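User: Teach me something about this protein's shape.
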Amino acid sequence: MTDPRLDPLVSTDWLDAHRGEPDLRVVDATFYLPHLKRDARAEFEQAHVPGAVFFDIDAVADHGNPLPHMLPGAKALAEAVGALGVGTGDRVVVYGGRGLIASARVWWTFRVFGHDRVWVLDGGLAKWKKEGRPLESGAASPAPRPFAATFRPELVADLSRMRGILERRDVQIVDARSRGRFAATEPEIRPGLRGGHIPGSLSLPYNELFRGEDDVMRPEEEVRAAFAGAGLDPAGPVVATCGSGVSAAVLALGLYRLGRRDAAVYDGSWTEWGGRADTPVATEPGRR
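Assistant: First, the predicted structure itself:
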């Protein structure tokens, strides 16, 4: 079993028992891709875990970069997080919707900026609601708190780093998109992108770390088996990629559970790589 001091997941029982403690902040990171035409903030205001604040990954981003929801700088991140009422010493529990994709992204974001006291709610808001736990509505009005952010570049891969990895073949690349998108047999969600994957990548769709339609992550031994089935050695260095740097964080979360604390995420992911004409693309099917 994963050491509970190192496990990045907390249960709904744990959160229900501890919410309201003075140093515990609950963050709703619900996010939807544009083609789903859903308003995450409006849904937050309709119903959320009591005391939660809303972290909008499209708003807390580098707006000077044309790629979607790229990480902001440390100063901007600190200001945005502090405005949500999250302080430097606080414990943070992040939850979200389907497949924990956005909650994992926000968990990774906190870690990128030096805040390790962060966990993901296993099962997310769906499990919380299913169990009939308390909810509240309305917009959050947190009191601002000082938040210090220190950028950890080793947890983030950019285009230059990915080109270097491809040249040296010294780091494993694992892709969280569907196998069809990986092999270019399904269309990309965003228009204008080529199909396929970064040459040499391994395929492990993020949803394979969950059981069926459940948002509860599989036990550690099953997560380990899923990575092994994809051909990945969790003892070696790894960068996770996906469509736009969100679901890749689920793989980083899974690897953290296996002891790989330094797994990086390619922030631009396929939106950057597949949107360029000067990056190589492969289309062979991923392993099962």
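Now, about its shape. The CA atoms of residues 235 and 260 lie 7 Å apart. DSSP finds ten helices and ten strands in the chain. If you'd like, I can walk through any region in more detail.
User: That's plenty for now, thanks!
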